[in-house]
Design brief:
By secondary structure, the chain is α/β, with parallel strands linked by helices. It contains 15 helices and eleven strands.
């Protein structure tokens, strides 16, 4: 009888053990953000209207038509007067950058943001198990990640990843790398460092598709501390719920729309093609199709499917059309939208496609105005704005979406673990945002260029 009881109990206990192991393993796959630190360069690197005008005037390849194009682009860009540029711009050497210029720009950011993050968290550099660095347009030997390891004297067994060429969506790729490392290693700390080096990438030619990048990109960066240690869950700021990456690099039209190349005169720059909006829309739609079932409630998915089916049936039986297309209501599963500040058109486009309000778009618009497009780090400035405005409450869901060369669209959903309200990089100016007007003063100062005659125009001294 006892033997029979044991024979019954053994498979039951074994099944419970296996179930416990699976739950335990799944728990260790959690990915928490413990803290993050956005970078604010010093005030002597601030690009106001007057100085930007001086930079444009000393670009010798530009004529009146290029001036008029730049004026229109800058005025409609949504960028303000308090963004930052690399030091090379202020010494007038943007046409002749050196390798040291790019490295120095990155090291200034590394030392500031990583240092502040580690000091605030109470961690020593030797406790970092995983380091992921993404800087798309600067490749150095030793790598930038190796320079960080050397500067902070990190451990010999640290797992290091150095990403280049991944574009503005690289920070979510970095998070995805960390998430996958966490799946097979328990109780780890990871440091993600995301930025862009502008020093070696100023375009001095006159191709309109390439001078546009000079108007949009600004200096910035962010250091993010993550862990999968369940004991730190109460201390964490955010918990990763899901992450989806979409890559359309196999499509020539998507691959070519956003690419670094030389123009007809041999000037190196970053080409933004006319097919970019179409490529971005297509990648965004495919990405949203995949992530929607993961983040939206079943009732919203059922509603959307029902309306879509009804619309198809009406199409078959009517020649007059069936009205507006059905749209998923992302607000049923998302409380805050963290949108990449690729430009005013990018923010407006996502706002229209997701039917977002001005309140939803405010963090992205204000980040673009204050810091510009800081490439892959821009998402974290938008997140910092939400936190500084005390919008982020425990249990809220934050949806991040970004675009990058390739062409890529990456998105993820974070859950706010506790009420947040630190000012981060916004602490000294958040009370003045949003301003009553974000009209760019370029129009007031340089509006006369619109009425100039090409036959009589002379470059002002």
């Amino acid at each position: 009888m006892e033997l029979l009881l044991i024979l019954y109990l053994v498979p039951i206990f074994f099944s419970l053990y296996i179930l416990w192991r699976k739950i335990d393993e799944r728990s260790d796959r959690e990915c928490y953000i413990l803290d993050y630190q956005c970078y604010k360069p010093t005030d002597d690197r601030m690009l106001d209207t007057e100085f930007c005008g001086e930079i444009i005037k000393r670009t010798k390849n530009l004529g009146l038509l290029e001036y008029q194009f730049l004026l229109k682009a800058i005025v409609s860009s949504g960028i303000g007067e308090q963004t930052y540029g690399p030091r090379i711009m202020f010494s007038g050497r943007e046409d002749n950058p050196t390798l040291d210029d790019g490295i120095s720009e990155m090291e200034e950011f590394f030392c500031d943001s990583i240092g502040k993050l580690l000091e605030r968290s109470g961690l020593s550099p030797s406790q970092i198990d995983v380091l992921v660095v993404n800087v798309s347009m600067l490749s150095a030997v030793p790598s930038l990640s190796a320079r960080i390891v050397n500067h902070y004297k990190m451990r010999e067994d640290i797992k290091v990843f150095n990403l280049t060429g991944m574009g503005c969506s690289a920070s979510l790729i970095s998070v995805d790398i960390v998430r996958n490392v966490f799946k097979s290693h328990k109780n780890r700390y990871a440091l993600v460092v995301t930025s862009e080096s502008l020093s070696p990438n100023w375009y001095s030619g006159n191709d309109r598709s390439m001078i546009l990048a000079n108007c949009l990109f600004r200096s910035g960066g962010c250091a993010i501390l993550l862990s999968n240690n369940r004991a730190l869950a109460d201390r964490a700021m955010f918990k990763l719920k899901c992450l989806v990456r979409t890559h359309h690099g196999a499509r020539d039209e998507s691959y070519d729309c956003c690419i670094q190349r030389e123009d007809a005169q041999g000037c190196l720059g970053f080409h933004l093609g006319k097919t970019l909006p179409k490529a971005a829309t297509r990648a965004c739609i495919d990405n949203l199709k995949e992530i929607s079932p993961k983040i939206l409630p079943i009732r919203e998915l059922v509603r959307f499917a029902t309306v879509s089916m009804y619309r198809k049936m009406m199409n078959r039986n009517s020649t007059k059309g069936s009205g507006p297309r059905p749209v998923l209501n992302f607000k049923t599963g998302v409380d805050h939208f963290c949108i990449h500040t690729g430009g005013k058109a990018v923010i407006d486009g996502i706002g229209v496609n997701l039917e977002l309000s001005e309140y939803d778009l405010e963090p992205a618009r204000m980040t673009l105005h204050r810091f510009g497009n800081t490439s892959a780090s821009s998402l974290w400035y938008v997140l910092g704005y939400m936190e500084a405005k005390k919008r982020l409450k425990k249990g809220d869901k934050v949806f991040m979406i970004s675009f990058g060369a390739g062409f890529k669209c990456n998105s993820c959903l974070w859950e706010v673990v506790r009420d947040l309200g630190d000012g981060n990089v916004w602490s000294d100016c958040i009370n003045s945002y949003p301003p009553q007007s974000i009209v760019n003063p370029f129009l007031e100062k340089y509006g006369w260029i619109k009425d100039e005659d090409p036959s009589t125009f002379k470059i002002p001294e």
